[in-house]
């Protein structure tokens, strides 16, 4: 909730800088209307005192003072009324309802008493919770801008990065050596006559050795009965 001093300070700042594009909460609006009422009362007091001088200069000064104070208070009231409509997410043109006698004034009073939209709307951040989290205190300045959206260039680069296929390294496969057909293998060489002549003596020696073993076998068998008889 905005204090009276803070509301008057902020409202005066809005009026001096013609800042009608933001939002004003209910407490800020009604506290400032109270400040306008006090200022108007003070101005009327001065006007009445000057007018009581009963001179031509007094009439001129009181009329000029009343004109200036009325114009300033009306201007400030319009600025705050538009900002209050913005807090309801409504355009400032709705202030023209005041031109409708009685019904328009009642409708505007109801709108000014209603709570504003929560969070950020098209006219700016929430004047009570500028950070949008529902817990940040009001800092008295309603000029907080929303977070800047991503630029089209950055969005396009991110999209292209996500859509780009991953290049795979080619797998090198070594060619396998072709199998040599059996028909291409050269046949084993036939033995030459010289090699055959060298093998003949070996065969004769083996045959003679076999005959000798065959002759010794009967003699050993004949000696076996003699050995048994002696025992």
UniProtKB/TrEMBL annotation:
<feature type="transmembrane region" description="Helical">
    <location>
        <begin position="59"/>
        <end position="81"/>
    </location>
</feature>
<keyword id="KW-0812">Transmembrane</keyword>
<keyword id="KW-1133">Transmembrane helix</keyword>
<dbReference type="InterPro" id="IPR008523">
    <property type="entry name" value="DUF805"/>
</dbReference>
<feature type="compositionally biased region" description="Low complexity">
    <location>
        <begin position="171"/>
        <end position="188"/>
    </location>
</feature>
<protein>
    <submittedName>
        <fullName>DUF805 domain-containing protein</fullName>
    </submittedName>
</protein>
<feature type="compositionally biased region" description="Polar residues">
    <location>
        <begin position="221"/>
        <end position="231"/>
    </location>
</feature>
<keyword id="KW-0472">Membrane</keyword>
<dbReference type="Pfam" id="PF05656">
    <property type="entry name" value="DUF805"/>
</dbReference>
<dbReference type="GO" id="GO:0005886">
    <property type="term" value="C:plasma membrane"/>
</dbReference>
<feature type="compositionally biased region" description="Low complexity">
    <location>
        <begin position="204"/>
        <end position="220"/>
    </location>
</feature>
<feature type="region of interest" description="Disordered">
    <location>
        <begin position="171"/>
        <end position="231"/>
    </location>
</feature>
<feature type="transmembrane region" description="Helical">
    <location>
        <begin position="29"/>
        <end position="53"/>
    </location>
</feature>
<feature type="transmembrane region" description="Helical">
    <location>
        <begin position="93"/>
        <end position="112"/>
    </location>
</feature>
